[in-house]
TrEMBL record:
It holds the Pfam family GFO_IDH_MocA. Gene3D superfamilies: Dihydrodipicolinate Reductase, domain 2, NAD(P)-binding Rossmann-like Domain. InterPro entries: Gfo/Idh/MocA-like_OxRdtase_N (IPR000683), Gfo/Idh/MocA_oxidoreduct (IPR051317), GFO_IDH_MocA-like_dom (IPR055170), NAD(P)-bd_dom_sf (IPR036291). The lineage of its organism: Bacteria, Bacillati, Actinomycetota, Actinomycetes, Pseudonocardiales. This is Predicted dehydrogenase. Residues 52-140 form the Gfo/Idh/MocA-like oxidoreductase N-terminal domain.
Length: 385
């Protein structure tokens, strides 16, 4: 007997943007449709039906046409009241998020959203309470957890590879062109604080869940935020003043005395194997994990270099590390998390990355910015809805 099918309408806002289009529409929702849907525990096949919503009619129509979709509108209210719409998804610019999500919750839809869920912690917690009181399910994108490199790192932690973990050093970033002689590869709102931009708010949300899910709870933050490039050229060719930080140098104290230092920068040139890398040192071994790869050096295999600036380096240090095997198949992380959220909505399966988790990310960013302003280390308190 054929499995029963049921469709789930998803209002997708911000699909003309980088993340909304590529990662969420094409690589997640359309990819799920192409694979035939998501199977629920009772055998039912859940088929997502996107309803595109945005500001620009022409762009929406073009996307819909290209992908054979027939439902799109520039009216959020109309989208939210479409028959069969059960989930609202938001990948708009951050500054428009709270208003649209609130409207979706009031319309009785479940909500899934890009991070940061709001621009400040209080607003994030208010959203969480709104969702809880309305009895709708709410989830936030935490895509880095699903990166193959970080999953291997988590596997090493769970397997006890490191012994006592001492420190974590993260390097994230790349050069974002100023837009004068080569087009910038990120939208200009990222460099304007008044439009919700800034690398601290963008990246510290990620570092909160990465540090806590792989290592331990974050107890304090000390950060220095900088605007290294003071002027850039926007999408229309106009020069503008950068009012948001484009680099954030953070030190985080974790439970168990683990010290994590993470540099996040759009003003650095990459001399790494991947755009993000974490170097973890433990008493029993060390690891370097990127987006996909993870390499380790065990205590028993650790060489004994001797400092001698009079001689050229005599060892090839990188060759002294071993590759951690995949031992698994890794699908696109955004898609994997979408499948989990769909099962959460349709079959009540657990989904730990709710709006409280989203608010915790915003909190770390907010405290990071405050630390930078005040020049001091700030404790991270527990949040609750
Ligand atoms: N999970 C991740 O790794 C990740 C990575 C990058 C960005 N993001 C998040 O995704 C969201 C979108 O980022 P993006 O890089 O795709 O941005 P983008 O500028 O490419 O897209 C923004 C979207 O918002 C819409 N929008 C609505 N009101 C707008 C306004 N007033 N000005 C400009 N655009 C407006 C645009 O039409 C577009 O669809 C942000 O909240 C960002 O923090 C997440």
């Amino acid at each position: 007997m054929a499995n029963e099918e049921r469709s789930v309408g998803i209002v997708m806002n911000g699909v003309t943007g980088r993340m909304g289009y590529r990662q969420h529409l094409v690589r997640s929702i359309l990819a799920i449709r192409e694979q035939g849907g998501v199977r629920l525990p009772d055998g039912t096949i859940l088929r997502p039906e996107p309803i595109l919503v945005g500001r620009n009619e022409n762009k929406l129509a073009a996307i819909a046409k290209e992908h054979g979709l027939d439902r799109w509108t520039t009216d959020l209210g109309e989208a939210l009241s479409t028959a069969g719409a059960e989930i609202y998804f938001d990948a708009q610019v951050t500054s428009h998020r709270v208003e649209s999500i609130s409207a979706a919750i009031e319309a009785g839809l479940h909500v899934y959203t890009e991070k940061p869920i709001a621009e400040d912690t209080e607003a994030a917690l208010r959203l969480g309470r709104l969702a809880r009181d309305a009895g709708v399910k709410a989830g936030v994108v935490q895509d880095k957890l699903f990166l193959p490199g970080l999953r291997k790192l988590k596997r090493l932690v769970d397997g006890g590879f490191f012994g006592r973990i001492l420190s974590v050093r993260g390097e994230f970033g790349y050069w974002v062109f100023e837009g004068d002689w080569q087009e910038a590869q990120r939208p200009s709102w990222n460099y304007r604080a008044e439009d919700g931009g800034g690398i601290t708010i963008d990246m510290f949300c990620h570092w909160r869940y990465v540090l806590e899910e792989i290592f331990a709870p974050v107890r304090s933050v000390q950060a220095l935020a900088a605007t290294h490039i003071p002027r850039r050229v926007d999408e229309r060719g106009d020069t503008y003043d950068c009012t948001a930080d484009d680099a954030a140098y953070g030190i985080f104290e974790l439970d168990g005395g683990i010290v994590a230092q993470i540099n996040s920068s759009w003003a650095t040139r990459v001399f790494r194997d991947e755009l993000v890398e974490f170097h973890v040192d433990g008493t029993e071994g060390s690891a370097v994990a990127g987006l996909r790869r993870c390499r380790v050096q065990h205590r028993t295999m650790t060489p004994k270099p001797v400092w001698n600036p009079d001689l050229p380096a005599g060892e090839d240090f990188r060759s002294q590390w071993q590759e951690v095997p995949d031992n698994d198949e890794f699908d696109n992380g955004f898609k994997v998390q979408w499948e989990l959220f769909l099962r959460h909505v349709a079959a009540g399966e657990p989904f730990p990355w709710d709006f409280l988790a989203g608010a915790r990310g915003v909190q770390l960013a907010e405290l990071g910015l405050r630390s930078a302003e005040e020049g001091r280390r700030i404790p991270v308190s527990e949040l609750s809805l």
